[in-house]
UniProtKB/TrEMBL annotation, chain A:
GO terms for biological process: transmembrane transport. This is Carbohydrate ABC transporter membrane protein 2, CUT1 family. It comes from Micromonospora chaiyaphumensis. It is found in: Cell membrane. It holds the Pfam family BPD_transp_1.
Automatic annotation (TrEMBL), chain B:
The chain crosses the membrane at residues 28-49, 86-110, 122-145, 157-179, 227-247, 273-295. SUPFAM superfamilies: MetI-like. Its main location: membrane. It holds the Pfam family BPD_transp_1. It is found in: Cell membrane. It comes from the Bacteria. This is Carbohydrate ABC transporter membrane protein 1, CUT1 family. Belongs to the binding-protein-dependent transport system permease family. It comes from Micromonospora chaiyaphumensis. PROSITE patterns: ABC_TM1 (PS50928).
Amino acid sequence: MTTDTATVEPTRPTVAVRHVLARIGRYTFLCAVLAFFALPLLWLATAPFDDTPTVTASLPRFTLDNFRALLDNPYALGSLLNSVYLAAGTAALVVTFAALAAYALSRVRVPGRDALLYGLLLLSSIVTGTATMVPLFELAFRLNLIDSRLGVILILSGGLLPAAIFILKDFMDSTPTSYEESARVFGASPLQIMRHIVVPLVRPGLATVGVWAVANVWGNFLVPFLLLRGPDKAPAAVIMYTLYTEGGQADLRLLSTFSLLYSLPVALMFVFVSSRYGFRFHGGIKR
Amino acid sequence: MVEGARPVTGASPAPDAAGLGRARATGFLVPAMVLILVFLVVPAAWTIYLGVTNYRLTGLAAAHPEVVGLDNYTRALGDERFRTSLLLTLQFVLGSAVIGQAGLGFAIAFALRDRRGPLRRVVEGFVLLSWILPSSVVAFLWIALLDRDAGTLNALLGIPGTAWLLDHPMLSIIVFNTWRGTAFSMMLYAAALENVPRSHLETARLAGASTWQQLRDVVFPRIRGHVLTNLLLISLWTFNDFAPFLITAGGPEQRSEILPVYVYKVALSGGELGFGAAISFVMLLINLVIALVYLRMLGRRKESA
């Protein structure tokens, strides 16, 4: 379409029409998007409160009785505790170890530092749980870590650490060193400086990494599925899977309430993080 | 300890302000490095070794594995099931990541680009929710949605009896993964579009450019780097995604058996650890290629920035 000044006048109505059509098109598209993303989630919102839940999402006849099914199942509540244990253990390990490493890498000129960081980044992106499930299983077997929750924590921590070190090193690099210097002038030991000055300064960074680690572990299915044998140690991710794959007709009361309870912590964490810090990338992904 | 006297150069961090010293700094590094070494480096290296053995979970080869050279690799190349799996994986990555997540993510970001307010928050909220919920929960949500007799989808479309997961297993997991992962692309493109000056779009629109022309001539040249970043990352993640196992478990008749599911079934259900490790090594190599391209590009962008 060519538009020089001579043709603008007669095309103005068509431009206006096109503008309206574009608006209608845009809203139709957004409604379709909303339907596509909300549709699978409907069941999670209705079934737990329906007195006769089916797999169809429908307006529930309201009841809270379904939540009793959680108490009747021997593994449901325990598996949530297992998830808390795995998530807390991994987050603690990752935050502590990553903070120490990131501080050293940020403040002291360790030989080969840039190569090390590059190698870590490469390693953590290519060595995924799916690509290395065979050797991980083998390794856990030899180290006597099969059916051990500590094994799951260690393996998950190993996978999360490189990225955590990266994020925290960025935080440390952007904090000024003047506080540390003056504390040192007044005779504080390096460990005192770490505890009383560096940790409070980078606390937002530590919290970010902690939340990120918890979210990762909470949803992780593969590693505990591979390593943990019995249902008494299995986290919610694995129990959820066994609830709908094993033993004939699935109990939808249990399944729906358990899904909701298991999803709630990450959903709340997400609401908290996005309301407090805004959940978006600013100006493009970090360069 | 002379570090403290060294001047700060460029982007390199400040000198050793707390007086840590090189020895203690190394000590700070050790715990993290040990964990990374044992649980990332060793497994990766071990994949190479296991891949050239006939190691099995049970039986004679479990006690005394033998090195069989490249037998596992030649066997894989001749294996119909492996080649099919590779092809299905390609379909899965192209369909759900490159077309599905990147395409839909961009479309949503573009449609919402100049909107603030509740509509944007609601759309973004639902897209993000599907991204953050645990995978075993969303897997069941999709099983329920696509159920043959009582699924919400069939009820809405008025076609009860359509067995989506049995008749169209690949389509099902591709649509599922599009739903699951679009959030990342949407957010990345939303941020990228902020770099496109609104006045340029306005000018193009007033000059009568169609939406497609605006995208091609104004938007795309400015977000090319983001597009590449996005495609590489989501391809890598989708290639390593185990969630389809939770929905179709590779079935029916291996018709949705992407590589991660294939490795799991051959190595851990079937007990052929050696052969499974060989396939895993192929996966690691593919990951390495994608990651190297990505890091190279990132480095180049940093230089030009």
